Amino acid sequence: MRDLKNDVASILISEEQLDKIVTRIAADIDRDYSGDDKKLVLVCILKGSLVFMGDLMKKIKVPVEIDCMKVSSYGAGTESSGQIHISLDLIRPDINECDFLIIEDIIDSGCTLSHLTKYLKLKGAKSVKTCTLLDKPSRRKVEFIPDYVGTEIPDEFVIGYGLDYAEMYRALPFVGILKPEVYTK
Ligand code: PRP
User: Fold this and answer.
1) What is the number of the ligand 1 atom nearest to the C-alpha of 107?
2) Whose CA is closest to atom 7 on ligand 1?
3) Which of 58, 86, 115, 180 is most buried, judging by how many CB atoms fall within 10 Å of its CB?
4) 165 three-state secondary structure
5) Which tens digit of pLDDT belongs to each residue from 25-52?
6) Which one from 108, 147, 155, 164 is the annotated catalytic residue?
7) Which ligand 1 atom sits nearest the alpha carbon of residue 84?
8) How far is the CA of 37 from the centre of ligand 1 (A)?
């Protein structure tokens, strides 16, 4: 059996560190959304945010609803193209009552979250905030500052904890740096 861990150059964020990050963000969200006037909807951006979202929602104590969107950037491989396409949209009649918190695994160029935030506001959302596990500020193409950040990371190709290369490695329980020879083959 192929061991995907052999493709990992080093572990950037361990399971224990991830757990601490998720616990801290959940506490921040509880503090900010504790009001009775809030209707918090966590929006998981498929597929990369699946693992982070699953862990985060278990630690949040205020009542939450969940929803999912799928957003693809045009182009493949290790570079984002800057253009995005919504292939799975929210289907709900109560958008104007919802306080949406978009959950991302990573911000790179900033195009996805910048576009999605504007999109949900245009659809009439009561409020829209953003939360990312990982942030690569050095890669921004558009200015974007998320409301909740797990940690900033250097410009390395990271996989695991939901993040993929060619759809693999998402199930690894840590965030690791992929060996360059894997994606330059
Ligand atoms: C990744 C990530 C974000 C987006 C960030 O998704 O999950 O959604 O790219 O990049 P940006 O800041 O440059 O817009 P990807 O398109 O790789 O899809 P996936 O989540 O299904 O892996």
Assistant:
1) 12
2) 48
3) 115
4) strand
5) 999 999 999 988 999 999 999 999 999 9
6) 108
7) 14
8) 32
pLDDT recorded at residue 185 = 73
**pTM for this model (two decimals):** 0.95
Answer whether 112's CB lies under 8 Å from 94's CB.
Answer: no
**150: domain range?**
21-155
Closest CA to 97 of 62, 130, 63, 125: 125
Cα distance between residue 102 and residue 95, in whole Å: 14
Q: Would 56 be classed as within a structural domain?
A: yes
Across residues 111-136, what is the average pLDDT? Answer: 97
Report the domain count for the chain.
Answer: 1
Hey, whose CA ends up nearest to atom 10 of ligand 1? 108
Among protein residues, the one with the nearest Cα to ligand 1's atom 21 is 47
Å from CA of 48 to ligand 1 middle? 7
> Would you say residue 141 lies in a domain?
yes
Distance CA 160, CA 175 (A): 5
